[in-house]
């Protein structure tokens, strides 16, 4: 299974049904010792979802030791379908266990220590569902290595993970016979819309009229300024597109002899649903949204859209198109209520999707950015506790900028975090200053994860889970009960806040253990939500062919700064599953014929499948089906049945 890319936040969910009080639902992470094959990783990070005494148990380690949370509000080992969801931003993690007709609230915790990156590697880290293979060493806090029950709809970051395209049936504990679909958590009203993550699209067939007439209606909501809502490309120089630019909606088409472009006066990236209509009758175009209506006629003689392709796209376009006056940014937000030529279009039935999720669930605006032509800020209420811990990621190409500022109401004390010539500086007044030295530069256009802490008599910076800088200061930490800003300040008279505004992106932020939703700010200037205009990049570490030299160039620090690049605790004691038996054993099945997983991890003497291929056999097992009961498909290539349509005339 493909590992998650964004290592500072994720969501995992699945449905389970079991009568057993113990079992492993999911393991995602690095087996013991795997970090030695990973670049810039000191620990074997992991997440494990288990059942313990009939309750769901979550264990996670980002490097500071295993932290366990148990959802003891709901007993789930009673053979009833249950949904399990894990959400994480920074060091804040939530666990929710829910059932139909049962009120439940998620439990929330803050992971300990100075680590906030979930270090995974596609060649070293593993995802195991329903068990851990014998011979794989995992942390001793993981209690189970197998699962007896049923599982359905596993999702990682809103993307469905197929449970039948696994790479290895490593525990030999899968019946490979499927299960009856769950009878709980079924939507009575089918979902017709999609949420787009800003890096994908939905492709549908073009069984509609496009040549002379075009009529599109949809509703959308977004915080992003730019993105493709609809796109279809025909003959050379021909296209029809609806997209957003700087928050405005634009309907644009070219039939081959010139472009017609209709642009809304108002902006609509306010996070609320808006309904738009875009229509064309030969050369005449019309855009309606809200109380606005804009018309324009395309130039030239062409009045027909020809060479209609097999696919049209919503929410984005695969790769990049060549029409320079149409954005290539994919849409980040929700699209629903789509109709073409007054026929309902169900986006959930797209023939191909990427970066989408069904429906339009509530989403935290965890990303904010500013560009150099429009610097600004967002302002929030002050945190409640004494001291301060800020966890976030950022990306920029600019060497200078004020990232964060907090002060007391009387403005006698403040804390700021800035970039100065590419160096991070954490400044406390009255108190002291901490900087990362001139060797490391953080304006390289890559994501960097930072924990900035002011507590007791210490200032500390933890960067990318790899380097730590700290300095002792004379004053105890106090409560910053005044203004809090990201990206800049509203009043340049604030002490030591007159530096350059930050240009770049800030995301996945928590302040004193509380998730920061940037759209809930008190005041905002020129902030763009849920989009990062810099070139896309990830912090997914790479694997070196051999373990590289761990020596580092000395880091220059100022004052009495202490630098620590060692993990805070020794490696956890490995858990070693019991030695495999010398002969193949047969699992004891339960009475249910739909159980997909059994209780014991089994090993066989057969050669394992290559890890880069599907573990299911290319030739399906023979299973005779009486003709009176049904037909068996898949025994031969393109197996199918053709039925004649009968029409009765009266």
UniProtKB/TrEMBL annotation:
Gene3D superfamilies: 2.60.120.200. Residues 567-581 have a biased composition (Pro residues). This is Laminin subunit alpha. The gene is LanA_4. Residues 560-594 are annotated as: Disordered. Keywords: Disulfide bond. Residues 1-179, 191-360, 367-532 form the Laminin G domain. PANTHER family: LAMININ SUBUNIT ALPHA-LIKE PROTEIN, PIKACHURIN-LIKE PROTEIN. It comes from Portunus trituberculatus (Swimming crab). Disulfide bonds join 505-532. Residues 582-594 have a biased composition (Low complexity). InterPro entries: ConA-like_dom_sf, Laminin_G, Neurexin-related_CASP. It holds the Pfam family Laminin_G_2. CDD domains: LamG (cd00110).
